[in-house]
Design brief:
The chain is of the alpha+beta class. It is built from two helices and four strands, in the order βαββαβ. A hairpin with a 5-residue loop joins strand 2 and strand 3.
Length: about 100
């Protein structure tokens, strides 16, 4: 399994844009239902701060680039961020019912 964590800080003026775009991504994921992927987005208590977690089962290709709403989200995201975000690989040491 590969796991990536992304922390994003969004400009206050674009919080609603990000949350709407994320909702669209999840709606399309729910419609397509790709297997072997877990994608989570969390709002942190600090205004405009988010955590995104992407987990892919071994042998699973990342389906997000094939999701139109995700591609649109990615093209707009850099203008919405208050600072660049960098994906960080995580090494799982335990899990319960992850998939």
């Amino acid at each position: 399994m590969s796991t990536v964590l992304i922390r994003a800080n969004v400009k206050p003026a674009h919080i609603s844009d990000v949350e709407e775009a994320v909702a669209n991504v999840f709606a399309q994921l729910d419609a397509v239902k790709p297997a072997g992927v877990r994608y989570l987005s969390y709002r942190l208590p600090q205004e405009g701060s988010y955590l995104i977690l992407l987990e892919l089962q071994d042998g699973t290709e990342n389906p997000l680039p094939q999701i139109a709403a995700f591609r649109e989200f990615q093209t707009k995201l850099s203008a919405w961020l208050s600072e660049p975000s960098a994906p960080q690989p995580l090494v799982p040491i335990g899990e319960y019912r992850a998939f």
